[in-house]
């Protein structure tokens, strides 16, 4: 893997769950086990991340930019060992068309919880060693697939505080004609911070979310 990924590898090895999010899996075991693929690649402008926009007709998190991913299937195996790895690659292939053989997995982050949909999510980190064509596979699931340069994610001009209609505040990124917010923005925000890539930005710059967000 390229040397610029070393800080991410170290962050994945040392980060503790409360440092990543205040929403952690319920102790009683509730929640649907799932995984997302946090895929780093090398594009024309340097390091980049793979994201997608979920279809607006989906029941959960409709229309939101997100990492590829979804719920674990029984065939994926143990949700506490290899299950999330298999699920992240399988879902990424189904949603973006990427060839999983070109992806090198190098770590996992602590499991997190999304209260609104009751998903217990394992972020799986990958290096896009051999890039392959990507695009929308099923319009019923995915509206578009795109990559975002890490340079844009760290640019203070693209950083905002997203304001939920219920008053919740969280990190946001205005990139590639999209507002990345919620769970996905939270993971990106913490990765940038613990990898030492974060640049000072104006947290008072707020962007309200649509009422249906």
Brief rundown of the structure:
The protein is built from 5 helices and 12 strands. The protein has helices at 6-14, 17-20, 83-96, 150-154, 182-194; strands spanning 32-43, 46-54, 65-66, 69-71, 103-108, 112-114, 119-128, 142-149, 159-163, 169-175, 178-180, 206-208.
Explain this structure to me?
Strand 9 and strand 10 form a beta hairpin. The strands form 2 sheets. Strands 1, 2, 3, 4, 5, 6, 7 and 8 form an 8-stranded mixed β-sheet that branches. The protein has a 4-stranded mixed β-sheet with strand order 11-10-9-12. The chain contains 5 helices and 12 strands. The protein has a domain at 3-148: Nucleoside Triphosphate Pyrophosphohydrolase (Alpha-Beta Complex). It has helices at 6-14, 17-20, 83-96, 150-154, 182-194, and strands spanning 32-43, 46-54, 65-66, 69-71, 103-108, 112-114, 119-128, 142-149, 159-163, 169-175, 178-180, 206-208. By secondary structure, the chain is an alpha+beta fold. Helices cover 21% and strands 33% of the residues.
CATH class of the domain at 3-148: Alpha Beta
Helix content: 10-25%
The count of β-strands is: 12
Sheet with most strands:
8 strands, mixed
Full CATH superfamily name of the domain at 3-148:
Nucleoside Triphosphate Pyrophosphohydrolase
pLDDT < 50 runs, ≥5 residues: none
**What's the gyration radius in Å?**
16 Å
Mean pLDDT: 92
Number of helices: 5
- Multimeric state of these chains? single chain
